[in-house]
Design a protein that fits this description.
alpha+beta, five-stranded mixed sheet, 5 strands, 24% helix, 43% strand
């Protein structure tokens, strides 16, 4: 089992960046930090951003996790 500390970053492809921004700001209460190259950076805490939406394939997602040690991360891949 891996000891997950935090979800550090999420990157989502979407066919409608404006709708994604609306959902995040209106429903989830996130703050739109900036728009860049057709994408949108949003946050829900004091980091620069937590979520990035880009105009692209809705199945293209990336998630970054924070773990306590590298050994824990390595062991998760070996299970």
């Amino acid at each position: 089992m891996i000891d997950l500390v935090d979800i550090r970053y999420v990157r989502f492809g979407t066919g409608d960046v404006e709708a994604a921004i609306g959902f995040c700001t209106d429903t989830m209460g996130l703050e739109l930090v900036r728009r860049e190259n057709g994408g949108a950076y949003l946050r829900g805490d004091d980091r620069d951003h937590n979520i990035y939406y880009f105009d692209g394939d809705p199945t293209d997602h990336t998630v970054g996790f924070e773990v306590v040690t590298r050994a824990e991360l390595d062991s998760a891949f070996n299970q």
